[in-house]
User: Fold CelD-like protein from Sphingobium chlorophenolicum L-1.
Amino acid sequence: MLVAREYRSVMEARQALGDALDRAAMSSLFERIEWFESLHAHCFATTEARIFQALEGEHQAWLFLVAPRAGRVSALANWYSFDWGPVFLGPPDWTVRRRLVEVIAQNLLKDSAQVDLYPVTEASDLLLEAFRRAGWFGVRRPMGGRHILDLNGRSFEQYWAQRPGRLRTLISRKGRASRFTLSISDRLTDALWRDYVAVHERSWKQPEANLSFLRALAERESAAGTLRLGFARLEEQPVATQMWTVENGAALIHKLAHDQAFDGASPGSLLSHAMFAQAIDRDHVTTIDYGTGDNGYKTDWMERRETLYRLDFFNPRRASVWLPAARTAISALVG
Assistant:
């Protein structure tokens, strides 16, 4: 028997889940209930959550969504999310999973005009087919990429020897003249967080709108021993910082920032060199994920690009979406 339920808060979903999406059960950071809890609390606090569960025997599918306005539903995700998709429990059966998502999509047809999902990677085919079978008009568009490094057993020395010559020359030249002290911590302290915020305030980055979310992430991962918080300092002054997590053989690069005043000395690149070296030779990761965004510098460090997709679904029963649907479809055709 196939059953679908909806929860209007992440707390309700957690109660229904028990420990099914806790850290011990889910290898991916982006599929854990604590990830969705924190993301909603710190980044979508004024936006209604709409969380769907579909069950069939020992199989479950969960879609974590938000409703930014009446008739519109979006993925509970933002620029911190490396990937978004249905969270599945039970044996990996593609046909059953598609059927579970399809019944959720049918429920969404009752009161929603549009659904937009981003960033989606592996789940794009399943989502597209399930929503279309449920009666939605769906459009898939590539929107950016995610840069990944597969180590395939290489040491840092072997990996580094295969980097572009311009990057190796830069690190060698800047390293010889460097006056920076590099450090990598796996425990967060108030002093380290003050240093982190100080670098962000002097960075080329836009002002960080959700520092509370990053602080909560750093605290959770520090408690779990998976945090890698790196700094380059000139004497006592922090001039570059990077927040990584390392778990289950994967290193995730969440945030980078550096003080613009020190651009010429490349503290961020020197810190990256140290962070990659530790992740590969000490943490023995098998992959490193630079997250979303097609920044040019990432291609020097990484070797594989994964396309990110945005999926837009339109309810054909609502005349108000016919024009937006046509425009979106044309946009997908012309790229």
User: Anything to note?
Assistant: The chain has a mean pLDDT of 95. The first helix runs from residue 10 to 17. The longest strand covers residues 137-150. The chain has two domains: 2-145+307-334, 153-285.
